[in-house]
Amino acid sequence: MESALDYWSARALLEWQVELGATDALCEAPVDRYALEDPAPKPKPGAAPAPPPKPKEVDPVEEARKAARVADSLAALRAAMEAFSHCELKLGARNLVFSAGAPGARVMLIGDAPNREEDRSGLPFAGQAGALLERMLAAIDLERDAQVYMTNVLPWRPPQGRDPTAAEIAMLTPFLERHVALAEPEVLVLMGNVACQAVLGKRGLSRLRGKWEQAWGKPVVPMYHPADLLRQPGQKRLAWADLLALRARLDAVS
User: Fold this and answer.
1) How far is CA 250 from CA 33, 39, 187, in A?
2) Which numeric CATH code is attached to 61-253?
3) pLDDT tens digits for 181-207?
4) In the beta sheet, which residues pair with residue 109?
């Protein structure tokens, strides 16, 4: 007849099992504790600590595409642009310059970036350039506020009115393309080199102006920006020819 273990022998055996990892009294199947991975492996003595994981890089262009894609109205698009946190231009601008004129108009004008007057008012084509634009449109029987819709490539003014960078244009173009899709104009008028770069992927307004192209499913024509005409009055003759061509295009499809 086998003798029973005394208290101290039984306790010693139990402590030995716990030290080996046998802490579960019952289990469906045997567990090889030595085969389990250490959840937090200790560094070897003298080894340098592992570097912290790098934060995931954010692609601002892709983030802009995602934000623009879900906007199902002009109001939703404006809200998405106001909430967009990847463009530092908004930190130094007074206002978001979204649009002016009549949504759904046959003609949509796209300027470059807000100037000082646009930044103050929150409206594109403001100030002296806007006044000249109104006269230009009236000359071909278009009422600025009722028959034309206007926006810019950039909704925020760059510091000191500098030229936008290629990265800034690329970042904000998805919002512009969605803006065009929601506004549904018949014709796009690109006023300035930045507008040409965003929509056509080209620059060189003196070479591009007055030539009709297709982009984003729309007929597109580049023209001089009214601000350019204020600085270079000699180009008004070319701008008048482009306006007449725009009027002829509208009349041909009306």
Assistant:
1) 80, 71, 8
2) 3.40.470.10
3) 999 999 999 999 999 999 999 999 999
4) 150, 189
Question: Residue with structure tokens 């307004």?
Answer: 205
Which is it for the CA torsion 186, 190, 194, 197, positive or negative? positive
* Helix (H) or strand (E) segment spanning residue 107: strand 107-111
- How many other β-carbons are positioned within 10 Å of the β-carbon of residue 80? 18
Segment 99-136, tens digit of pLDDT: 999 999 999 999 999 999 999 999 999 999 999 999 99
Exposed/middle/buried for residue 239 (C-beta within 10 Å: 0-12, 13-18, 19+) = buried
- Domain borders along the chain are 61-253
- Determine the distance from the C-alpha atom of residue 63 to the mean position of all C-alpha atoms in its chain, rounded to a whole number: 6
Residue whose structure tokens are 């965003």: 198
* Secondary structure (DSSP) of 17-43: HHHHT---S--SS---GGGSPPSSPPP
Residue 216 to residues 22, 32, 186, 188: CA-CA distances in angstroms?
68, 63, 11, 10
**Which residue blocks in 93-234 are alpha helix, DSSP H?**
116-121, 127-138, 144-147, 166-183, 193-200, 205-208, 226-231
Q: Which helix (H) or strand (E) holds 219?
A: strand 218-223
C-alpha torsion sign, points 139, 183, 63, 122 = positive
C-alpha gyration radius of the chain: 33
> How far apart, in whole angstroms, are the C-alpha atoms of residue 5 and residue 64?
74
> Tokens 């601000």 belong to which residue?
227
